[in-house]
TrEMBL record:
Organism ancestry: Bacteria, Pseudomonadati, Pseudomonadota, Gammaproteobacteria, Enterobacterales
Entry protein name: LacI family DNA-binding transcriptional regulator
PANTHER family listed in its UniProt record: HTH-TYPE TRANSCRIPTIONAL REGULATOR GALS, LACI-RELATED TRANSCRIPTIONAL REPRESSOR
Pfam families: LacI, Peripla_BP_3
Domain HTH lacI-type: 1-55
Cross-referenced InterPro entries: HTH_LacI (IPR000843), LacI/GalR-like_sensor (IPR046335)
Key words, A-Z: DNA-binding, Transcription, Transcription regulation
C-alpha cells in the first residue's frame, strides 16, 4: 500500500497524508482521523528509507548483547523491543558474543546512518573501546550500571542485592557459602563478588570459595559446582550470579547424591522463568528485566532528541524471591 493509495482511500491529498505521518499540527482533526483510519484498515507501513530522507533519521536502534541465549538478556531485549515499537522504532539485534571484531562489524552501520542510537549490554571493561568506535552516536549501556562517565546507563545495585542473598543464607544457619561467578570483565560480576566478600568479612566468616564459570550456561554452572564439590571442605550453600548457573549447580548437587536445600542451599540471580521451572524451585534475586530494557530505550530517545544532554544514570529496584531451594 502506497501513500497515494492511502490518500485516495481517505479522500484527502497526498500532502495531507504526509503531514499526518510527520505529526504536523497543521492537519484538521477530521482529516487526521480519516487518514489514521485508512492506515489502520490497510495495515500501512511507512517506507523507512523515505522517512529517513525526510527526517535524517532511520527510526532504527542497534542493540548489542553478549549472549541472546541468556534468559535475562532475552527478557531485557523484549522490553527494549516493546518500548522501541511504541515510539515508532525498530531494533537491529547484534549477538556479539563479547567479540570485538563482531562488534566492529555491527558498528559499521553507524557510518551509513542506518541506526539512530545504540543500546549495549557488553562488559564494562569494553566501554572505552566501544566509546572510541561509537563516537558521538547516542548510546545507552544497559544492565551494567556505571556510577561515572559520559554514557547513560540503567541497572540495579548489584552489591546490595548480593549482600542480601548472602545474609539470608547465613541467617538460615549456613556456615560455608560458596560463590559461582562469571567473567570479572563485567561490572555486575565484580559487584556481586564484592557483596559476597563484604558480608562474609562483616560476619567474621573465614570460609570463602569462588568458582568462575566459563560462560552463563547450565553446563558451565554444573561444571563449577562439580569443582566446588571436589574440595575437602564442601559448601553448605551456593550463591550463583545467574539463574542458569544456579540450575546447573542444582543438577551437579543431585548427581552427587545430595539434596537441595537439605545438604546445600542454592540462590540464583535474575528472576527468570527458569527459576520456577527447576525442582525444587529456585530462590533468586529478581531484576526488573523488561523494565530495564524499556527504560534504556527512554534514555536513548532523550539522547537522540538532545545529543548535548548530560549522561543519565537510572538505578532500578530489585526483589528477593524466597522459594524452596533456600
Amino acid at each position: 500500500m502506497s501513500i497515494q493509495k492511502i490518500a485516495k482511500l481517505a479522500g484527502v491529498s497526498v500532502a495531507t497524508v504526509s503531514r499526518v505521518l510527520n505529526n504536523s499540527d497543521s492537519v484538521k482533526s477530521k482529516n487526521r482521523e480519516r487518514v489514521l483510519e485508512a492506515i489502520r484498515e490497510s495495515n500501512y507501513q511507512p517506507n523507512l528509507l523515505a522517512r529517513q530522507l525526510r527526517t535524517s533519521r532511520s527510526s532504527m536502534i542497534l542493540v548489542m548483547v553478549s549472549n541472546i541465549a541468556n534468559p535475562f538478556c532475552a527478557d531485557v531485549v523484549k522490553g527494549i523491543e516493546e518500548e522501541a515499537e511504541m515510539n515508532g522504532y525498530r531494533i537491529l539485534l547484534c549477538n556479539s558474543g563479547s567479540d570485538i571484531e563482531r562488534s566492529k562489524s555491527s558498528l559499521g552501520l553507524l557510518s551509513g546512518k542506518m541506526v539512530d542510537g545504540i543500546i549495549t549490554m557488553d562488559a564494562f571493561s569494553r566501554l572505552p573501546d566501544l566509546s572510541t568506535m561509537i563516537g558521538q552516536t547516542p548510546w545507552v549501556q544497559c544492565a551494567e550500571y556505571a556510577d561515572a562517565g559520559d554514557v547513560s546507563c540503567v541497572g540495579i545495585n548489584d552489591t546490595d542485592a548480593s549482600e542480601f542473598a548472602i545474609r539470608h543464607l547465613l541467617e538460615r544457619g549456613c556456615k560455608r557459602v560458596a560463590l559461582i561467578n562469571h567473567d570479572l570483565s563485567y561490572k555486575y560480576a565484580q559487584l556481586r563478588e564484592r557483596g559476597y566478600k563484604s558480608v562474609l568479612s562483616q560476619q567474621g566468616n573465614d570460609f570463602e570459595a569462588i568458582e568462575y564459570a566459563s560462560e552463563l550456561s547450565f553446563h558451565a554452572g554444573r561444571s563449577a559446582m562439580e569443582n566446588l564439590l571436589r574440595a575437602p571442605l564442601k559448601p553448605d550453600a551456593v550463591f550463583a550470579v545467574s539463574d542458569t548457573l544456579a540450575a546447573g549447580a542444582m543438577r551437579a548437587i543431585d548427581d552427587a547424591g545430595m539434596k537441595v536445600p537439605q545438604d546445600i542451599a542454592v540462590i540464583g540471580f535474575d528472576g527468570t522463568e527458569l527459576a520456577e521451572m527447576v525442582s525444587p524451585q529456585l530462590t533468586t534475586i529478581e531484576q526488573p528485566s523488561r523494565d530495564i530494557g524499556r527504560h534504556a530505550v527512554s534514555l536513548l530517545l532523550r539522547k537522540i532528541d538532545n545529543p548535548e544532554a548530560p549522561a543519565e544514570r537510572l538505578m532500578m529496584g530489585w526483589r528477593f524471591i524466597a522459594r524452596a531451594s533456600a
